[in-house]
Amino acid sequence: MDNQFNGEIMGQDYFLEEPAESELKGDVTAVKKFGLMAIIFGALHTFCLYRNTSGITYPFFMAGTLLLIAWTRRSEGLSIFRDKNGKIGLNIFYIISLMLLSVSKFTTANGTILTLDGFAIYLLVFSFLLHMCIDTNGWDIISQFIGILLASLSPITKLADPIVDGITWFKSRGKAVDYEKRRTMVAVFAGICIAMPLLLIVIQLLASADAIFEDVLEKMTGVFKLPDNILDIFGMAFMFVVTFWLFYTVAKVLSAEKVKVNNKNCGYNAVTAITFSSLLCLVYLLFSVIQIVFLFMGNMTLPEKYTYAEYAHEGFYQLLAVSVMNFVIVTLCQKLFAESKVLKVILVVIGFCTYIMITSSAFRMFMYIEAYNLTFLRVFVLWFLAVLAICLAYLLVSLFDKSFPVYKISMVTITVMYIVFAFAHPDYFIAKYDIAKMGTGEGVPQISGDFEEYGNSMARYLTWEISEDAVPAYVGHPTLLAKYSTDYYGRGGVPLTEKYKEIRKFNLARYRAYKLCSPYHQEKESSN
């Protein structure tokens, strides 16, 4: 079996080291070190997160995961608080950030934030593991992301390892156990394997047959509701197997330091970069002059039939895309091409032009908000522009200081800014702003009649599209609360009281919204 994963990205070699022949036959040591931990992780992940990625169990899952990582490190005589070089600071930052992100998971109901929380946790976990297990000092942004990618893909290259290692370990145990005991152990194990699926099926069937039996079991299990159907049983079993396999293979690869990234400049001819970047630079300079003279200084005559809002909205996303593309161009030129003073100057000019584009993009978005109020997307892209501006500054500094740790400082900055953004619950402030803005014009006084006749698109946004995070902003506006309850909770046809029976899935934002909206929902149910 060939477990090697080799390749080249942008002229840079990377690989997962080829295991020794003895490893291919099974690694007993790995089973002893990581087997039990992987089983615990699989059970913990399945219990906490099966069909539940925004519940109160998420912080417990993260705390348990960090404890398992600490256990793994301790088994190797190492500490979770120290990196490969024995330093402490950044490890503590990773641990605190991961716990805060996991808390954010059950305190918000905003779908975008929940998705971003998950993505941030994924990147931070693998970045943390690399930082602990491998000397990443001097790695640039591209090398860091290649390392994260390789660590993420390592389970694919080690697909059969848990089985092969387990068989080898079992055989090695057999040499130390007499024949009768070995037969007994095999029989007990076989009995457990047979009993588990049978128990799950029988308990499910009996719980469906008798409501009292189901209620007793739910009280006994406390926070864990019985699966609703047989598919959930297989789904939970599948999740357990996958997460066990992930923990085992990633721990095995990283503990052996088999993720290798050749962190070096590729050294391609800088003339190529100078040629295409100089042409881009000329276009950017012309565009920047137009923005300064016509947009920022106000000496602008719009084409016929254009409003300022239309002008702002039409240009915003294009400028955002070009700004991100410029950030990538500067990063790649720094990585791929040989050092050149001319290229540095051009990249710096592109960087400053990008700042003008970022400013123009933000300016246009503020114009659009003035005309059409706030939404989550509009707030998020303003936050993203601020993050992009800061990280671009770090990147430009690294052009002149090779030792500048762009990735680490950018990672810390983005993480801190994102955690602040997530815990601010922007939907609440968006709703407050929009209600106040509506009150000055079309506003709240007009939200007293039939909503179907109310033509303002923001009314639909506030009662249909925005998350439960916004509901506390509706206190004092009973019509909004009533309409939100009808529109938002009425879509699934599930009574509000049914949403919070399982403590495992408790979400603070949803529960708060439920408490505020339930009187209006119950009033409607009673009238029907």
Integer average pLDDT: 79
Count of discrete alpha- or pi-helical segments spanning 4 or more residues: 19
Q: H/E series, N to C? A: EEHHHHHHHHHHEHHHHHHHHH
The major β-sheet equals:
3 strands, antiparallel
User: Tell me, what's the shape?
Assistant: flat
As a whole number of angstroms, the C-alpha radius of gyration is 28 Å
Q: Give the oligomeric state of the chains in this entry, treating copies of one chain as homo and distinct chains as hetero.
A: single chain
Which regions have little confidence, pLDDT < 50, spanning 5+ residues? Answer: 1-5, 18-24, 440-455, 493-498
Q: State which percent range the strand residues make up.
A: under 5%
Helix content: over 70%
- Secondary-structure class: mainly alpha
First-to-last CA distance: 66 Å
The count of strands amounts to 3
- How are strands sequenced across the largest beta sheet? 1-2-3
Task: Describe the protein.
The protein is mainly alpha-helical. 71% of the residues lie in helices and 2% in strands. The protein contains 19 helices and three strands. The chain has a three-stranded antiparallel sheet with strand order 1-2-3, with helices on one face. The chain is flat. Mean pLDDT is 79; it is low at 1-5, 18-24, 440-455 and 493-498.
